[in-house]
């Protein structure tokens, strides 16, 4: 009986956290870029170019393997386009901390004619919260995630929070 109660509480907490993230993304995003879940992105047959829309200092702490840092405040569309294949139907997944900044960057790619662009739902925080690996600038696995500040760090439930 005790195990069932604990399981129920864990499931309730997870659902509650998910609902809060849903509300946050509804509040801040315009829904002009489709989402891809971390579980779908992690599937072995999911091939995509990953773009990290966080700032370079965040990217240096950790990022998803093979992601290209394109930044947000210093995002340069022309430079980013040079890094992408000419085929406009290539799958591109853009992520940031939780999925707000990445929507802005992903939408710019859609306006350039890319037709297979996604925003990673919950960003790198959700990636790490689901126990997927991140690497540092040397390519070593790490538990550190740059959480921007103490307010945003509440969305990261697993890993080591880093902010300045």
Enumerate the spans where pLDDT stays under 50 for 5 or more consecutive residues.
5-15
SSE run:
HEHEHEHEHEHEEEE
Q: What is the number of independent domains?
A: 1
Compute the number of strand runs.
9
Task: Look at the structure and give the CATH class.
Answer: Alpha Beta
Structural class based on helices, strands and sheet pairing: alpha/beta
How big a fraction of the residues is strand?
A: 15-25%
- What is the CATH topology assignment? Oxidized Rhodanese, domain 1
First-to-last CA distance: 44 Å
Radius of gyration: 16 Å
- CATH architecture title: 3-Layer(aba) Sandwich
Across the major sheet, the strand order is: 1-5-4-2-3
Q: Largest sheet at a glance?
A: 5 strands, parallel
Which overall shape is indicated by the principal axes computed on the Cα atoms? globular
Arithmetic mean pLDDT: 91
Tell me the number of helical segments per DSSP (H or I, 4 or more residues long): 6
The residue fraction in helices comes out at 25-40%
| CATH homologous superfamily title | Rhodanese-like domain
